[in-house]
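Incident log, structure service

09:12 report received: a user says their structure output differs between two submissions of the same chain.
09:20 pulled the input from the user's history:
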Amino acid sequence: MTAVFRPTIGELLLERIKQTPDQTAYVFLPSNSAEGSPKESKALSFKDVYDTSKIFSDALFSLGVKPGHRVGLVTAGSQRWVFSYFGALGAGASTVSLDARLSPQQLVQAIQEFEIHTLLTESPRQLNELAANLRHPPETLKAIVTTQNSTEALPNIPGIEVLNCRDFLDRGERANELAPGRFDSTLSSERAIEKVSTFKSTDFSHSHLVMGLYNFYFGAFENSNETDVVLSTLPFSSPAGQIHALIPFSYGVPLALSEEAYPSRFVFETFKPKTLITTESVLKKFFQNDSSEPFHIFRSTALKKKFGGALHKTVLLGDLSDEMIEAYLRAAKIETYKSYFIDGGLGPITLTKVNSDPASNETHSNLGKPHGDIEVRVATDGEIWVKTGQNPKSTSSDLGFATGDLGLLNDSGELIYCGKKDSQFMEAFSKKFPLIDHLVSFQEEGERGFLALITLNRENLIGFAQDRQLLYSNYEALIRNPVVFAEVRKIVDEINTLLEGRSKISRFLLLPHEFSIESGELSPLQTLNRDLIQEKYRDQLELVKNAP
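09:34 re-ran on a clean worker, output below:
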């Protein structure tokens, strides 16, 4: 596949301003209008993005932001993120997108980790919470700005300039009068470097991200035009969402973003997207929440109507393992792609079309071949390494960039994703067993063994009980059934066998429920929140650890 070269994201924005300034780039639907009127959505043209980003850029420049500095963005999936992002690039800075759901303590950690010069926050409330935890601000931090209009009083932080949105924009307008061409000049330079939103110290060039976008979506977007709306459910604060936010500038197609974690049917009817970028977990939630007509009715027109009537392509961040969801999409005649992304933000690595023939479809973990100039290798310990023509500054090795993920390459060169490395190695092997929903392991202090928390797949567990004619009064009682425990013990023994010379699972605890996004144990992208899980179940883990 041939890459379409674009030097920087900034040059793409300038190109759009010259060619199609009034064309829609983004459409935002606020969460509080999920049941309201389509008129409540907010559209931004390329000119809107350019004009306001220019003011943000000049304001940042007036705060002392220079090429080489890092600007932190805690502005969620909103218009303010777009202005902050391009504004930072126009000041020559690296951007660090941080999850707006991070605690104040985690934000302080990120500010220190990334040596952030200026932090752009979402609201005065968020800023005040952060200020309470900045007793000893990092030396690199010089300014904090709230990008939301408000008359609320702001905290005084010694040594740090704190600005509200109005004062920030006023400074930008005054700075622009002094140097009106600086924004364009900086955007078209090669200096802008992307700093991804992860606690890995890794820089990625914009040219690499743009080339990755072109390669990645070449098949999914090859027949798209400026009227084909793309709906993304990925938050800008995630590395993947951040990359997807660049789609309008790479392809010229409007990008619709809902602030709802899971889009409602109203969102689909409002935007009428032709392409959906999402995750399997979001689709599951949508199917569960939409009860207008049973999904088991496999009529193409009825299923298409649920997605606004226009959807014909879905691109999934990650795998598609739910056979029923795959059957729904196939029945609705929606072309579906699955992919492999690196959590650290390197971006799209593989993209493969889900086979429309269920009889010939390969294993769900097959995520296809790498695109463009990207080379994927698997080390002897099973870790996936990625190498590109513009490899990021990272672990020095002939293999390239260490992803921290586990995988296999089949005879056709296609990537089979298996899970995470290190203490999560055994968690990857647990995916081989349908009865296991999640396995989270924690190493015991001073010992080689691991403690494991295990949740079971409810549907598969009930099927297991029916096959063995087990009697039980409720789900929790079924979890405690000796036959179930013995089966899980057998699975753990098999996992330990697969681990060969590695540390084994020495003890495990079966939880009487599944992990959920609502409880915080899973992220919106279905990844495990290991720190929260370890803290939440600390007492139970201690009991298991001290058991005879």
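09:41 both user submissions now match this output. Likely a transient worker issue. Closing.
09:42 reviewer note: DSSP finds 20 helices and 22 strands in the chain. Confidence is low (pLDDT under 50) at residues 32-38, 192-202, 390-397.
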